[in-house]
Amino acid sequence: MVEPISLTVLATSIVGFVFTTASTTVVQKATEATLEKIKKLTQIIRDKLKSNPNVMVELDKEDDKDKDLETIRFYLEGEMRQNKEFAEEVKSLYEEINQALEKEGQGSNIMYVYGGKTYQQN
Predict the structure, then answer these.
(1) What's the domain range around 20?
(2) Is 86 in contact with 11 (CB distance < 8 Å)?
(3) 72-118: per-residue pLDDT in tens?
(4) How many CB atoms lie within 10 A of CB 77?
(5) Residue 113 resides in a domain
(6) DSSP letter at 119?
(7) Is 90 exceeded by the pLDDT of residue 48?
(8) How many domains does the chain have?
(9) Could you tell me which residue, 16 or 104, shows the higher pLDDT?
(10) Which of 65, 57, 63, 49 is closest to 14 using CA atoms?
(11) Is residue 67 part of a domain?
């Protein structure tokens, strides 16, 4: 089960990885199986958040500078708090992706700058 305290960090990490171009280099070198998992995670999140027009506007923006990542994170975290099954599915898939990237030698050290704060993922 996902602890409530870790949901903010998890949601922040997922938004930084899935919905920004910060991980483009990592994704370009990922295997096809890992790319499919990333696409699946992105689609699961988009499907869950599609009923919220504010989030969809942000997700559809091309440039990371224009995206309000905090809005995306806020609603993703809210959905994860309300739906534990969804939270577990997202967390599990995200962990699988990280493990696969580490095995491929691409996930050893990723840093995101998000909301003026820096997050490092090992």
Answers:
(1) 7-108
(2) no
(3) 999 999 999 999 999 999 999 998 988 888 777 644 455 555 555 55
(4) 20
(5) no
(6) E
(7) yes
(8) 1
(9) 16
(10) 49
(11) yes
